[in-house]
Amino acid sequence: MTESYRVPDLAAGEMHRREEVIRGSRFIVSMAHCDSLEAAYAFLEKIRAEHAHATHNCWAFQAGRPGTTAHIGASDDGEPKGTAGRPMLTVLLHCGVGEIAAVVTRYFGGTLLGTGGLVRAYQGLVKLGLETLPVREKRPSAVMEIVFEHRFTPHVLRILERLGGRILERRFEGDVTLLVDTALDDWQAQERAVTEVCAGRVRVARLQAKA
Fold first, then answer.
1. Is the CB of residue 47 less than 8 Å from the CB of residue 41?
2. Backbone torsions φ then ψ of 47, nearest 5 degrees
3. Whose CB among 167, 168, 201, 207 lies 3.0–4.6 Å from 179's, allowing a Cys bridge?
4. Phi and psi dihedrals of 14, rounded to 5?
5. pLDDT tens digits for the chain (211 residues)?
6. Which residues pair with 33 in a beta bridge?
7. Which residues have C-beta within 8 Å of that of residue 36, sequence separation ≥ 6?
8. What is the pLDDT of residue 7?
9. What is d(CA 35, CA 22) in angstroms, rounded to the nearest whole number?
């Protein structure tokens, strides 16, 4: 069985947010599901624009499987070096959730926290956000191409609905061609069911796998 993992249960453009006041400074953590470097940086820019007048917008992201470091990034955004971005990233890498980005916005309240206090504040805000972050299991998927005669269309559609296949594209030409996104764990079962209902008069190919 292909390994699944947890990711934020947030739609594109949706974010999760918590807030805390620490010794007069207002801290806001914003979190999002980001499954690529492009998505992570787009989210960072969105928060920067929203909080353009904040003292700092420190950030960290891990855009892959939980704990992996192939697609990571972090920034102190003007706080003393090593007191914000890296501590935030450490929390993300050990939280058991992948494809996640966090921005901690600070509106300075007049009281210096010191380096230790800053590390605790930025890590604490990320942990605070994680406490209530909605998550879901992500199952690696594959794209299937299914080609069959028109008369089998209602039967194939019922099978895909029952087994969880998500139709990405439909082409109605000499035959019907469907591109279907399906969990890797399920694609062989869908292939068998479709082949059976079409009495073998079907072509099924796995085009690509997606992490």
1. no
2. -70, -40
3. 168
4. -90, 150
5. 457 899 999 988 899 999 999 999 999 999 999 999 999 999 999 999 999 999 999 999 999 999 999 999 999 999 999 999 999 999 999 999 999 999 999 999 999 999 999 999 999 999 999 999 999 988 878 899 999 999 999 999 999 988 888 899 999 999 999 999 888 778 888 899 999 999 999 999 888 666 5
6. 100
7. 63, 71
8. 95
9. 31
**The two three-digit tokens of residue 84, written as one number:** 């914000």
Amino acid 190 reads Q
